[in-house]
Amino acid sequence: MNVELIGNFVGLTLAHTGFIGSGQNGELMVPYLILQSGAKREVQNFEAATQQEAIELAHKAIEEHQDSVDAWSYAQEGIVELEDGTKQDVYLIKAWSNELAQPVQLYQRCQSSPFKLIGNIQILNFEEAGFSMEDADSFMNALNNGILSHKSANENWESWFE
């Protein structure tokens, strides 16, 4: 399995999501999908009358392109319930390559206004997606390299954290 490919792709998606969020001034981010075939990448944004409609459009696009791409990543805003029962805004990210058993799912806690990223990214299904715990360090190194590859986000990355 090419752990570096999917880790890098997740990092790039996380960095791009942070970059978008940093300029939203409290507005919801439009869900988006990055499709990769070979060295070619295509970004699709999903604007709709409601966030739920936009999310549904994105999921339909994922189903439509699943068999024709090497990898995809998807990002949207959402909310998770923390252990203490409080709700937290997050960026939800899913990423898939044809080597994974299922898309890897992650979230990054965030605050929209003033913008900041909170804590470390949380991976929800690392082993279920097809990774082994021996892959964890390589995945995180590749994720960090993906963040560094997004020049605009990389310049601001550290300042976005509390």
How do you describe this structure in short?
The chain is of the alpha+beta class and 162 residues long. The protein is 35% helix and 32% strand.
Q: Largest sheet, if any?
A: 6 strands, antiparallel
What is the arithmetic mean of pLDDT?
94
Q: How many distinct beta strands?
A: 6
In percent, how helical is the residue content? Answer: 25-40%
Decide which structural class fits the backbone. alpha+beta
- Low-confidence regions: none
Distance between the termini: 35 Å
H and E string:
HEEHEEEEHHH
Q: Which term fits the overall shape?
A: globular
Number of domains: 1
Instruction: Please compute the radius of gyration using only Cα atoms.
Output: 15 Å
With helices defined by DSSP (H or I, 4 residues minimum), what is the helix count?
Answer: 5
What portion of the residues fall into strands of 2 or more residues? 25-35%
List the strand order in the largest sheet.
2-1-3-4-5-6
Your description of this structure?
By secondary structure, the chain is of the alpha+beta class. It has one domain. The protein has helices spanning 3-22, 51-65, 126-129, 136-149, 151-154, and strands at residues 32-37, 40-45, 71-81, 87-97, 104-112, 115-123. It has a 6-stranded antiparallel β-sheet, with helices on both faces. Strand 3 and strand 4 form a beta hairpin. Helix 1 packs across helix 4 (136-149). The mean pLDDT is 94. This is DUF4376 domain-containing protein.
